[in-house]
Amino acid sequence: MADNRTMAQMLQAPIEGYEDAIVVPTINANNFELKQTLINLVQSNQFTGKQDPHNHLRFFNKVTSTFRHPEVPNTSIKLLLFPFSLEGEARTWLDKEPPRSILTWDDLVSKFINQFFPPSKTTYLRNKITTFYQEPNETFNEAWERFKELLRQCPHHGFSELHQLDTFYNSLNTNDQDALDSAAGGNFLDKMPREGLAIIESKSKVRYSRSRPNDSRAITNAPSSTSSPSNNSFEIQQMAALLEDKMNIRMSRLEKAISEKQSTPATVKAVEEVCVTCGANHNFNNCPLTRNEFPVFHDNIHQFQQTAAVGNFV
Predict the structure, then answer these.
(1) CB of 119 within 8 A of CB of 94?
(2) Which pLDDT score is estimated for 244?
(3) Residue 102 — φ and ψ, nearest 5°?
(4) Where is this region: Disordered (predicted)?
C-alpha cells in the first residue's frame, strides 16, 4: 500500500510509543483521586540515585500506607505514586525502561533494586560484615552501631542471627569480650541468640566518655593509614581529659589538707621577755646589773635607749 504522506509529514515525530513503563491496573472506584498533599509528601524525599534505595522504599511504603481506599488495592496506589518519588538519574532510568514493562509492584521493586543496588554492591557489603572488627579507638557502643548499620545497608545479606552475633563477638577487643562474658555469667556464646542480643543491647546503652580501648589485636588487623586531623583531635581530647583528671585529684588533696589545717586549733606560744643586758628571762629594768647595785650598767643602758630612739626618729 502506497504511503500518501508528504515528506513533511514523514519527518514529523511519531505521536505513539510514549506510554509509561509502569502499567497501573484500571481503577473502577467512584470518587477516587490522589490528594495533592500525599503527592507533596512523596516528593519531599525524592530519590536521585545516590541514596540508599532500601531506605527510599522504606520511606515510600510508610507514606503510602497512610492512604487507603476500600475499593483500591494499596499496590495500585504505590504504582501511581512511585514516579513522583524519583528525580534526576533515577527519573531518567524509569523513563528509559521499555513501555508497559512493569506490570506489578513486585516487578517495580525488583528492577529498582537491581538498578541502584547491583549484585556487586551486595558482595562488597557481605564481605565487610564477615571481616568486621572493632577499630583501635572505638568504644563498644560505636562498634555495635557501625555493625548494625552494615546489616541495615544490606538487608538481604542472608546471615543468620547466630552468625551475626558470633561475628561481632569475635571482632571485639579482649576487654569488651571479657565484659560480655561477665554480663553473661560465663561464656557469652553459651547463651541463646536472643539472650546474647539482649546482653549486647544492654551493654551498648552504656556510653563511654573517656575510656577507649586500645587493643593490640585490633591494631594488627587494622589497615595502615596516616594520621588524620580527626585522629589528632581525638589524641588532644584524651590528653585534655588526662590533665583534667590529674588536676581534680590534686585539688581534692589540697582541699583535704586545708580542711584538716582549719580543724586543728593553732597553739600560740607565749611571748617570753629576754633581758638585753644579761640574757635572762626578765625585763631589763628588773635586771640586777641595771639596778642601784650596778649604777654604771644602768647609765649605759639608759644612754643606749636614748640613742636608739633618736636613730629611729631620723
Answers:
(1) no
(2) 62
(3) -115, 110
(4) 208-232
Please compute Rg for the chain using Cα positions: 44
105 shares its domain with 51? yes
Residue 278 lies in a domain: no
Q: What is the arithmetic mean of pLDDT over 234-256?
A: 60
- Burial zone of 163 (CB within 10 Å; 0-12 exposed, 13-18 middle, 19+ buried): middle
Q: Measured between alpha carbons, how far is 313 from 309 in angstroms, rounded to an integer?
A: 6
Is residue 128 a contact partner of residue 150, using CB atoms and an 8 Å limit? yes
Candidates 130, 119, 51; CA nearest to 86 is 51
| Residues contacting 70, CB < 8 A, separation 6+ | 29
Biggest distance spanned by C-alpha atoms of the chain: 168
The pLDDT > 70 percentage for the chain reads 64
pLDDT value at position 68? 84
Shared domain check, 48 and 88: yes
289-310 pLDDT tens trace: 555 555 544 555 555 455 444 4
116-152 burial: b if 16+ Cβ within 10 Å, else e: bbeeeebeebbeebeebbbbbbbbbebbbeebeeeee
Same domain, 106 and 146: no
Interatomic CA distance for residues 64 and 82, integer angstroms: 10
Number of H helices, E strands in the chain: 14, 0
The domain of 213 spans: 121-219
pLDDT of 212-233, one tens digit each?
555 444 444 444 444 444 445 5
Beta carbons of 147 and 175 less than 8 angstroms apart: no
Separation CA 278–CA 291 (nearest Å): 13
